[in-house]
């Protein structure tokens, strides 16, 4: 009989600013695709706020000359943050634990090793 042990990486489930591990935001119930963890929910909210901020900045930068390099860079930043939020939504729609998603992207890390006894 084989026994498997998994090293659990708590830091990926933490909000770096608080230093606390993520807790379920709404218990174990999931209607498929929502943020199940407080830290994930906070990241989604921060990305939404950042998108709004970057759009305002881009509009201000582009007021004088919409074809300037600065304007293009500002809108590129909006696009990058929007893509980050879209990527987060895709991960949330998989309805997986954050550790599972992390290990799919980083299988070589110590946190994702599986040991056989």
UniProtKB/TrEMBL annotation:
Domain of life: Eukaryota
Ranges where the record places region Disordered: 16-41
Cross-referenced Pfam families: CP12
SS bond list: 62-71, 103-112
Keywords attached to this entry: Disulfide bond
GO cellular component terms given for this protein: chloroplast
Entry annotated with the keyword Glycoprotein: no
Stretches assigned to the CP12 domain: 47-117
GO BP terms: negative regulation of reductive pentose-phosphate cycle
InterPro entries given in the database record: CP12-like, CP12_dom
Disulfide bond as UniProt keyword: yes
Protein name: CP12 domain-containing protein
């Amino acid at each position: 009989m084989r026994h498997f042990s998994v090293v659990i990486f708590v830091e990926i489930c933490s909000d770096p600013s608080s230093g606390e591990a993520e807790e379920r935001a709404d218990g174990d119930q999931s209607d498929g695709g929502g943020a199940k963890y407080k830290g994930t929910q906070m990241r989604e909210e921060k990305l939404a706020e950042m998108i709004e901020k970057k759009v305002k900045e881009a509009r201000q930068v582009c007021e004088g000359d919409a074809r300037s390099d600065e304007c293009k860079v500002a809108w590129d930043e909006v696009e990058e943050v929007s893509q980050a939020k879209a990527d987060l939504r895709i991960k949330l729609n998989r309805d997986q634990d954050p550790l599972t998603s992390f290990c799919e992207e980083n299988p070589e890390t110590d946190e994702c090793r599986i040991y056989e006894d």
